[in-house]
Amino acid sequence: MSDAKRAVVLASGGMDSATAAAVAQERGYDLYLLHTSYGQRTEDKEYECATAQAEYFDAADFLHLTTDHLSKIGNSSLTDEEMDVEEADLESDEVPTSYVPFRNANLLAMATSYAEANDCDAVFIGAHSEDFSGYPDCRPAFFDAFQTVVDVGTKDATEISIEAPFVEWSKTDIAEKGTELDVPYEYTWSCYRDDEPACGTCDACAFRLQAFQNIGVRDPIEYAERPDYAEE
């Protein structure tokens, strides 16, 4: 049995959480990857990517949970076929239709349960600064508050740190760090709309393509379109 520290990583299958896994590993943690399917449009592709990441990082454990209550609650274009996924708008400060109400609290609660059950020391989430401009459950204050919930709501002997290492970073910063750490971005998925190829024109594709274009690296996944989103 390894004496290394242990961390649960919320592994969505996307590039941010894959980079968070690499950062956790770089910090000396054994990885316990937690992936959830909640009725999102691309859940099969995301599960495939998360599974490939678990193998790549030689995770100590991989847990896949079905959390379909989030799609049953609805009111998100990620889970509701009646709502359209919006075209990319990189300048908007509005809460986008892709926001899944209070999703990160649900995910962090499950991750904390998983962490406490396996004597883990930390929970890593890949949320970043461009997320919290639109998603209220990605704000630094939210993670601070959730840390208090974890401290109060677990056993006295349990010490679990909520780690959001990219909360002040841009997507470009994440792509740069991940490239440095050889994150297998070919095993990641960001598109909100499609399983393959990625659309290239939803918010998630746009932020991702922009990040790779900003650092001069070609995104290794397939796109139906690759518009130029690079910052001038």
Short description:
With 232 residues, this protein is of the alpha/beta class. It has eight helices and five strands.
Largest sheet: 5 strands, parallel
Structural class: alpha/beta
How helical, in percent, are the residues?
25-40%
Radius of gyration: 17 Å
- Beta fraction: 5-15%
* Quaternary form: single chain
CATH topology: Rossmann fold
One letter per element, helices H and strands E, the order comes to EHEHEHHEHHEHH
Number of helices: 8
State the separation between the terminal residues, measured CA to CA.
Answer: 51 Å
- What topology, given as strand order, has the largest sheet? 3-2-1-4-5
Low-confidence stretches: none
The total count of strands amounts to 5
CATH architecture: 3-Layer(aba) Sandwich
Give the CATH class. Answer: Alpha Beta
Organism: Halarchaeum salinum
Function: Catalyzes the ATP-dependent conversion of 7-carboxy-7-deazaguanine (CDG) to 7-cyano-7-deazaguanine (preQ(0)).
Keywords: ATP-binding, Ligase, Metal-binding, Nucleotide-binding, Zinc
EC number: 6.3.4.20
Describe this structure in words.
Pathway: Purine metabolism; 7-cyano-7-deazaguanine biosynthesis. It comes from Halarchaeum salinum. The chain is built from 8 helices and 5 strands, in the order βαβαβααβααβαα. The mean pLDDT is 88. The termini are far apart. The protein has one domain (5-174): 3-Layer(aba) Sandwich (Rossmann fold). Strand 2 (29-37), helix 2 and strand 3 (61-66) form a beta-alpha-beta unit. Helix 1 crosses helix 7 and helix 7 crosses helix 8 (203-215). By secondary structure, it is of the alpha/beta class. It has a 5-stranded parallel β-sheet with strand order 3-2-1-4-5, with helices on both faces. The protein is globular and about 50 Å long.
